[in-house]
Structures are given as C-alpha cells and as structure tokens.
Design brief:
Elements: H1 12-26, E1 29-33, H2 38-53, E2 58-63, H3 70-82, E3 87-92, E4 96-99, E5 108-111, H4 150-159, E6 164-167, H5 176-183, E7 187-189, E8 192-194, E9 197-200, E10 203-206, H6 214-223, H7 230-237, H8 258-265, H9 267-276, H10 280-286, H11 305-314, H12 319-329, H13 336-347, H14 363-374
Parallel strand pairs: 1-2, 1-6, 2-3, 6-10
Antiparallel strand pairs: 4-5, 7-8, 9-10
Length: 375
C-alpha cells in the first residue's frame, strides 16, 4: 500500500527539505517557477541548495510579463545569479497577450511586442529566451478571443518538455481553493502516493511549501539572509498587513490596485508604464475608489446596479468582447446582486471571467427577512 513519504511530525522546513530530496531522487530534470515574490524566492533557494549537494542543476523558470515592478526584475536577477553553476536560466521574454484591466480602449497589452522595441519597459536580457522554443505549427491557444496569452505560454512551454518536475511555491494556507488544488489529485511517483503533487501531462507539479504559513517564509528568508523584493518593505510601511503583502502583475483585474501605490514605490516604473499603455494614470488615482474600480458603491446618476450594467454594456467599446459579456450575462439571474458583479467585470474588462460571478439571489434579502421574523 502506498504511504506518505514524509513525517508529519517534523517542522515544515525539514518536511520541505525531505520533499525536495524525494523530487531530486525521482526526476532528472527539475524546474522552479519563480515570480520575484517571497514564496518562490524561498523555494528556489531550497532547490538550489539541494542541487548543490548533488552537483546538479535546477531550472529557474520566469515568464516575464514586461509590465512588472523593477524590484521584481532585480529579484529575478538575484536568484539567477545566486548559484550560477547550479542554475539553468529559463527567463522567458517572448510576445504574448496580457489583459489590461484599467483601459477599455486598450484592453490588451502585447508584452515584448515585435517591432516596438523602443516602447518596451526595458530591454530584454542578453541571456533570456527571446523566441518560443516549441514548434509554432503545434502551438495551442486556449481563448482565441484574447489571443496567445499568459497561460498559453505556460501550457505550450510545459508540453514541449516531458519527465520534468515543476516546483511551485503554492501555499495551501492562503486559500481553500489552493488547498484543494494541491491535495485533490495525488500522484503516484515511484510507488509512493504524493499528496502535494498533481499530474501535468507528461510532467508532475510539486508543491513542497504547501503547508507553510507566511511567517515560516519570512523566518527562512531572515535565517538564510536572503534578499527579497523591496516592494514588501514599502507595503508594510504603508500599513499593509503581513499576510496581504504580495508582489504581482501591475495591470490585470486582480492586482491593478498596485498602481495606486506605484508612483510612491517606484516613480520611474510608473512613468515608464504610463508611456507604455493607456489607463495607468487614471487607475492610479481611482483604483481604490468605491464608485470606480472598487465597484462597491453605485454612481450617483443610477438608482440600480441593473441600470448601471445596461449603460456599461451599451457603451462597451469593443464589439467582439461585448458579445462575450452579452452571451455570458444572458445565463445569469437578473437582480441587483448579480448586476453589481457584472458591472465589476465590465469596468475591469474581465472578458476572460477571471472574477467569477455568484449567480444567485441576494443573500442579504433572506438575512433581512430572518431578522424581521425573529427580532
């Protein structure tokens, strides 16, 4: 009978080291996905230490979105140079589409767009990968309305490899969905059922830090004297709670609020971003406004979210993407609870449905009725 390969009684650091030993024992090729954030910094360091013990190399994979903090770029450079003799640099700087949540007239950015070298946020690294390393004839696109996007790059990259262990710095304690993503589909590796891994085509994804808390991550960074992105320091000084400090993209629908602090944190990055793509200045000023990008208060000219939604839909400037919203909304209930969420998707240009809508009656109605009957 398959058994767990680690002892649940040990601390998370010891457990993570044992998990990495297991991965290196069972896979000749190991890649670590890095983002410049604290979790992937710790995971990359642990993997590099294990690779050094074995006189092997580990691939550090970074998909460069171009529109990122300068601090993120510095952190990636730091990790790539930490143990160069044990590192395969897999820094991908190829053209792909990113949703721009802060502009309806320029709803997409083509990162590293060919022919617009002078407009890029910065030059490409000399040692980075500048062209797609897979067969372009076999390249797949998940959402043709968007074009070749971020997850298409990941999927095609992974498909052109086989037998690779991909290490991901996902921590299950961040959200229930992350916990489910980690443990829901265990994988048999060498006769051992691994509950912190998932099958990924001809490869396997591993989550060695899945049971770490954010304080475990910071403790390791302190103990090992690792460098980390300065964005964390700036966020903490602004009063952001420890567990909410994070480094992410600057323009997608889940992280655009970063633009509000960007002029203060990295003024040169902000200036360059304003030149690169539309909507940045406006989002920087209104990203946290409840009547604008927050979509939590109804604009004063409207008496219902349904009315506001109808206005936004009627004036949506991109006919093709407008059709996506019309088709999606036709399947939803027509009430103000759902309409407010639809407004949020329209304002944030979320034609990809990354901000899913809870399609149900307003739960506050039942709650109010309960109090009326029982108080």
């Amino acid at each position: 009978m398959a058994t767990a390969i680690y002892d649940s009684s040990v601390d998370v650091l010891t457990a993570a080291r044992k998990r990495l030993e297991f991965v290196f024992d069972n896979f000749r090729e190991v890649h670590v996905s890095i983002s410049g954030g604290k979790d992937s910094t710790v995971l990359a360091h642990l993997a590099l230490i294990e690779a050094r013990k074995r006189n092997r190399k580990v691939g550090l994979f970074f998909l460069d979105e171009e529109v990122v903090y300068e601090s993120t770029v510095r952190q990636i450079e730091y990790l790539m140079e930490l143990y160069p003799e044990n590192t395969n640099r897999l820094w991908l700087q190829i053209p792909f589409c990113l949703t721009n949540a802060v502009s309806l007239t320029e709803g997409q950015l083509v990162a590293w767009e060919p022919g617009r070298h002078k407009d890029w946020m910065r030059p490409k690294k000399a040692y980075s990968i500048h062209a797609a390393p897979w067969d372009r004839e076999k390249q797949t696109v998940g959402n043709k309305s968007k074009g070749f996007g971020f997850y298409d790059v990941i999927e095609n990259w992974e498909r052109c490899h086989s037998g690779v262990a991909y290490l991901v710095g996902m921590r299950a304690t961040e959200h229930t969905n992350r916990w489910l993503a980690v443990v829901q589909h265990p994988v048999d590796v060498g006769g051992e059922m691994v509950h912190w891994a998932t099958k990924n085509g001809a490869n396997v994804n591993f989550n060695p830090l899945y049971d770490w808390q954010y304080w475990d991550v910071w403790k390791y960074i302190h103990q090992e004297n690792l460098r980390y992105s300065r964005v964390y320091d700036w966020q903490f000084r602004k009063g952001t709670p420890f567990h909410q400090c994070r480094v992410s993209s600057l323009i997608h629908e889940k992280s655009f609020r970063s633009l509000c602090d960007l002029p203060e944190f990295e003024p040169k990055t902000y200036e360059r971003l304003c030149e690169r793509i539309k909507g940045i200045s406006f989002a920087s000023e209104t990203g946290k406004a409840s009547r604008m990008f927050g979509v939590s208060k109804l604009p004063k000219n409207y008496d219902s979210w349904r009315g506001y939604r109808d206005f936004l839909l009627a004036t949506y400037p991109d006919a093709e993407k407008k059709g996506i919203f019309v088709k999606r909304f036709a399947k939803h209930l027509d009430n103000d609870y759902v309409a407010r969420q639809q407004c949020r998707q329209l304002v944030l240009n979320d034609y990809e449905n990354n901000l899913p809508i809870a399609n149900k009656e307003d739960p506050r109605v039942a709650l109010i009725q309960y109090y009326r009957e029982n108080l």
